[in-house]
Amino acid sequence: MTTDLNSSSMDTKYVGICEYFATGEGVTYIIASGTKTQINEFAGPYFSTGLGFYSFEEMKSALIECEGMNETCIMDDKRLRAAYVLQTHLPSVADLIKQYGFGTFSYQFHYNLS
């Protein structure tokens, strides 16, 4: 086993996902990849507190696992819920992660029906 002395856990890449719901404020989704610092900077100080971080391996596994599952079965598992949100909002990115195991992306979506 070799160890790269220039690499650290700070450089580890993740998928960060935040679902924010607030009455009168609408819904905001933040989905991004990168280091935890990069994802937090993209989300900003307000939304970064609600981020969940998943390794690309975790996300790939969850995307494959939730294929064909009923949405109600996915709701109780944060990892599967995150994969479902990624698949719903960014299906091309989800396919790339399933095929290659990584990707670089950032996405913010907000809507308010009031």
How would you summarize the topology of this molecule?
Elements: E1 14-22, E2 26-34, H1 36-48, E3 52-55, H2 56-65, H3 71-74, H4 78-89, H5 91-100, E4 106-111
Helix pairs in contact: 2-4, 2-5, 4-5
Structure description:
- With 114 residues, the protein is an alpha+beta fold.
- Helices cover 43% and strands 25% of the residues.
- The protein is built from five helices and four strands, in the order E-E-H-E-H-H-H-H-E.
- The chain has helices at residues 36-48, 56-65, 71-74, 78-89, 91-100; strands at residues 14-22, 26-34, 52-55, 106-111.
- It has a four-stranded antiparallel beta sheet with strand order 3-1-2-4, with helices on both faces.
- Strand 1 and strand 2 form a beta hairpin.
- Mean pLDDT is 88; it is low at 1-7.
Q: What is the residue-mean pLDDT, rounded to a whole number?
A: 88
What is the end-to-end distance? Answer: 57 Å
So what's the overall shape?
globular
The portion of residues forming beta strands comes to: 15-25%
Quantity of strands, as a count: 4
Q: Could you name the ranges where pLDDT drops below 50 across 5 or more consecutive residues? A: 1-7
Radius of gyration: 15 Å
User: In which range does the helix fraction lie?
Assistant: 40-55%
Which structural class matches the secondary elements? alpha+beta
Tell me briefly what this model is:
This protein is of the alpha+beta class. The protein has helices at residues 36-48, 56-65, 71-74, 78-89, 91-100; strands spanning 14-22, 26-34, 52-55, 106-111.
